[in-house]
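Re: folding output
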Amino acid sequence: MWVFSTAGCRWLGAAGSLAVTVGGWAAGTLPVRGGWGLWQPRASGVETAGAVLAYLGLTLLLLAWWQYGRQLTAGAGGRPLLTLGWWAGPLVLAPPLYSADVYSYIAQGAMVLEGHDVYGSGPSVLAPGELGHDAAASVGGHWTDTPAPYGPVFLVLAQAVVKLTGGQILPAVLGFRLLALAALALIVWAVRGLGGGPGALWLAALNPLLLIHVVGGLHNDGLMIALVLCGVLLAVRGRWVTGSAVLGLAMMVKSPAAVALLFVGVLVARRRGVLAGLVLPGAVAGAVAAGATVLAGTGFGWLRTQSVAATIHTALSVTSDVGLGLGLLVGDDPEPVKGTVQKLGLLVAVAIIGVPAWRVWKGRLDVVLGLGVSLLVLVALSPMVQPWYVLWGVCAVAAVAWDTRLGQFLAVLCAALTYETAPSGHTPAYGFALAGVALALGLVWMRRERWEAGAGAPLTPGRADAGPTVPPTRRSAARPRSRTGR
C-alpha cells in the first residue's frame, strides 16, 4: 500500500505532527498569562478535544515512524532529511508541548538579567514589572522555588533569548525553539559524521520522542546531546582537544555530559598512555567549564545545585520508587532511606559504566556504543528520570547500532515513553496505561520481527581508538557516505 511506502510514511507522519500541533493550541502547556491571546487556557471541552487530537496525531506519527524504520531495514533509502523537515516543521509554531520547562528557562534568563542569584533562588523571586515575571507565573509548581540546575553556558543562551525578546513569552518560546532546531541540526550532523546512515537518523533525529520533547517541549537536553555527539565525533577523528572543549560546553548545559569524557579519555589513553587519558581530556573540559563560568558571571553555584532535581519524585526513577517504598516500610519519614537508595543507585551506575569503558579500552566495543550504553545505565539508575532522558543514550546508540536488537528495543521503549506525558505536561494515569500498551505491542513485534544486524558488534582489537565502524549488514546501514536525504 502507498501509505506504507517511505513517501506515504512521510505524509502520514506530517499529518500526525500537524494534529499534535493543532491539538496543542488547545491542550498544550499554555501560559497562565502573556500568550498574547493566542496561547491561553481554553474551556474544558475544547481542551479535552485538543488532547484527544494530539494523542491521535502522536499515534499517527508513531505508526509512520515505525513503518518508516521497517522500510529502512529492508534497504529503502527513505530521504530522511526531507522526512525530518516534514515531521518537525508543523511543531515549529506549536505552543510549548508536554512540559512547562521552557517557562523556567525564560524566568532563569530573566533572573540573570535582573541581578538575581539563579543558583540561590527560584523564579518566584521575579517581581511584577521585572523581565520574566509572566513566565515565572507559568513555571510548574515544584520548580517555582527551585534554583537552576543548569550550567552557565545554557544560562547565557537563556538570557540572550530573554534580552532579544524582552522576556515576552511568545517570542521567547520561538527563540528557544530556534535553539532546539539548531540542536537538532547538530545531532543530524554528528550522527552522520559518526557513520550513521538513514537508519541511524531514523532512530536519533526522526524519533517521535525527540521531536515532541526537544522541538515541541524545548528541553535543553537536545542541546546537551548535540554537543556530546559533536565532541565525541571530533575525538574519534583525532581532534580530542577540541572535542574535550566541546564536552566542557556540554557539561555547562547539563552535567551528565561528563560521562562522555570517560570515553574520550579512553581514546586518548590508547594513543598517548593511561596517564594522559586520565588527566588531559578532563583538564581541557574543566578549563572550558571554569572559563565559561567566569565569563558568564553567574558564579559557581551550579556545583551545589546538581542534586536539586533528586528532591522531586518521578515515577520513572527505579531508585526513587524503591527508596520510597523501603522508607515507608521502616519509618514515618521515608526521605533518609530514599536518599540513601538514590546514592547507592548512582554508585552502582558508576560501577556498571566501568564495564563498557573497559571493553572500549581493550578494543572489544565501539567507543560510541559504549558511551550510549553508559548513558542509558546512568538514566536507569538516576534519582530523577523523565521520558526524554533516554534520548541521551539512544542518539549515541543510533549512530552505530540502530538495526541491532538493542536498537530495536530502544525504538520500542521510545515509542512507549511518548505516551507517558500529556500535551499539558501532566503525567496522568492513562498516560502510563497507554505507554504500557505500546510497550507490550512493541515487545510482541520484536519477537515476531527480529533485527539481527551486527552494527554494535565488537570491534577488531585495536580499532576502538579509530572511532565507529559500519558493518555491511544491510544496505541502509552500509552507506554512511552516500546520503540520500540531503
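--- second protein (sequence, then structure) ---
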Amino acid sequence: MMTFATWPWHHWAQQTPHSIALRADDADWSWRNLVMRVDQLAAAWQRAGVTVGCGVALRGKNSLDLLLAYLAALQCGARVLPLNPLLPAELLAQRLPTLNMDFGWCARGLPWPGTIAPLTIIDADSAAAAAPLVSWQVNRLATLTLTSGSSGLPKAAAHTYAAHLASARGVTRLMAFQNRHRWLLSLPLCHVSGQGIVWRWLAVGATLALARDQTLERALAGCTHASLVPTQLWRLLQGDPARLSLQDVLLGGAMIPLDLTRRAEALGVRCWCGYGLTEFASTVCAKRADASGGVGSPLDGRELRLVDGEVWLRGSSMAAGYWQQGRLLKLADDDGWFHTRDGGRFVDGELHISGRLDNVFFCGGEGVQPEDIERILAAHPAVRQSFVVPVDDGEYGQRPVAVLEADAPFPELRAWLEPQLAPWQRPIAYLALRQVLPDKLDAGGIKIPRSQLTRLAQAQFALNP
C-alpha cells in the first residue's frame, strides 16, 4: 500500500500535479487545482473554529461541493460525519447530540433541520487564503459513519485514515485499479461504500468521476470502474454496448443474476461481487462473480472465522470503535474479533452469507430494521398489532410490507406513517394480520414467529401485490 507522508491529495499534487484527479459535471480538475480549492476551504473552516478533533457533520447528496467539503474537513483534522439527507429530522435529533458534532455543513438549497440542536453552520461557499497545513497522521480518527441501526439507533463507526487506506488496498489489488483508471462515485458519501470509492481513488492517484442530474450511461462515459446494483447494470446493457468504456464493475445491493454477469462479461465488463460492512470500511471479501453464490475469500489485511454459524472478522480496516458521547466504545472481543451477527458457511473454500442473524434486511442497499417501523405504528391508537416483514423485489433486493391488526383504514395509516419514515423504510403494501395468519390472532399472548409470518406474508403478497 502507498505510504503517505502528507494528505493523499497533496501527495498526488506533488507527484503528478497536472494529472486529472477529478471529473465533475463535465469539467476536469487536476490534482494541483483540487488541492488549491481544498486548501482555501480548509483555511476558511479553520478561521471559523474547526480544529483537530472537532466534529463536523456534512449533509447533502453527492456533488462536487460535498466532496470538497469532505476533503476540507478532513484536512482540518476533524472527525467527519457524512449524513444521509433523507434521514428523518427526528432520528437526527436523537442521534447527533451523542456524537459531539460542533459544526454543520449543508449543500446549497438544503436547510439544516430546525429540530436539531443548533450547530455552527459553515457556509457552503466559504474560502480563505491558505492557512498552516494540519499534519497528516494516519492513525488519527477521520470519519464517523452511521450503521444501518440493526439493533436500535444507528451506531457511529469511527475509522482512522489507516483503516480507510487498508480497505482500499484490498480492493485495488484484487481489481487491479490503478492511476490510469477512472471510478464513478455512484454511491452516496454517507455510506461507507461511497467513502470506499473515494479512498480507492486517493490510494492510487486515479481519477474520480462525479455527475449530477445525468443518466447513468452519460455519467459512466469514460469511466473504467463503477459500483452498481444489478438493476443499474441491466439497464446499461440494454443500451449501446459500443458506448461502454466500463471495464470492471463491483456489484452489490441485491442478488446477482448469473445471466447478467455472463452478458456483461461477454461485452468485456468484468463483474465482481463481495461482502462488506460499515465497521470494516466497506469490502471484506470479494471475487469475480460466478454461479456459486459465494462472496469469495477475505481480502488482504482481513481475517475471517465462523463460530456457531456466525461470521467473525478482524483486520486492519476495522473501525477503532463506536463513537458515543466523546469516547470510543469497544466493538471487538478481547482477541480482536468482531461478531457480525451475519450467518455464513464455507462451501468449496469460499464464504457464503446466509443472512442476518437478527431481523434487518436491505432495501436498495439501505438497512431496514422492522422494529423501528413497528414502534412508530404501535403509537397509532388504531393499531392493535403490527409487524413489518421483507418481500423480495427484483430491483431493490427486498422491500418492507406492513402486516397489521388495526381499526383504521390502511390508506389512513399509510398517510400517517410515511412522513415519519425514510423512503426505504416505507411499506409498499399493507396486509391484514387476520388475512395472513388467521389462526394466530388469539394465541393467548404467544409470540408470533417472525420467520413464519414473513413466509406467509410473502406468499400473500405474491398473490395480491
